[in-house]
Amino acid sequence: MVKHGQPLPARPSGQHKQAFRLHMKLGAKSGGDVREFGSTAKAVLNGIDKVHDAYLAAKGANTGKLPVISLTGSKPIVSTGKGQSSTNYEPIFEVVKWVDRPPELKGAAAPQVQAAPVPELEDADAEF
Fold first, then answer.
1. How many structural domains are present in the chain?
2. Which burial class, exposed, middle or buried, applies to 72 when counting CB atoms under 10 A from its CB (0-12, 13-18, 19+)?
3. What is the residue range of 51's domain?
4. Which of 59, 73, 75, 116 is surrounded by the fewest CB atoms within 10 Å?
């Protein structure tokens, strides 16, 4: 794992995938605590990439603030290959407002962890 904006290291093996990990503060109805959210799933990475683009587009007008992001739905992504098909779901996130950084997220350093290999699917020819 590297901080956003730093170059990705060399892939240690074919068993390692690109991933993300972030800290987020849940809304009051969901407990209000800080959680870690991460994934290696391509469908989830696509959803995160899109909301990150929205964040980058609006962060200049919201200096010092963080976005409140809502999961507004999901989009089915069907992949086929070798006579089979599977459906994954891309999350649809939306920036709904900007707020001051919560005290729980100030200076919170992510724990240092060693990336573990994630086995590839046996049928790795499928596109997602």
1. 1
2. exposed
3. 20-103
4. 116
Determine contact, residues 51/95, Cβ cutoff 8 Å. Answer: yes
Please give the DSSP secondary-structure letter assigned to residue 4.
Answer: T
Partners of 88 in the β-ladder = 77
To the nearest 5 percent, what fractions of the chain are helix, strand and coil?
20, 35, 45
Cβ-based burial of 92 (10 A; exposed 0-12, middle 13-18, buried ≥19): middle
pLDDT in tens, 33-56: 999 999 999 999 999 999 999 999
pLDDT-based confidence at 122, cuts 50/70/90?
very low
What does the DSSP 8-state code read for residue 45? Answer: H
Q: For the residues 9-19, what does the mean pLDDT come to?
A: 89
Q: What is the mean pLDDT of residues 109-117?
A: 43
61 touches 105 (CB < 8 A): no
Whether 80 is covered by a domain: the verdict is: yes
User: Which among 45, 51, 50 has a CA at the least distance from the CA of 69?
Assistant: 51
Tokens read off for 76: 């089915």
User: Domain for residue 6, yes or no?
Assistant: no
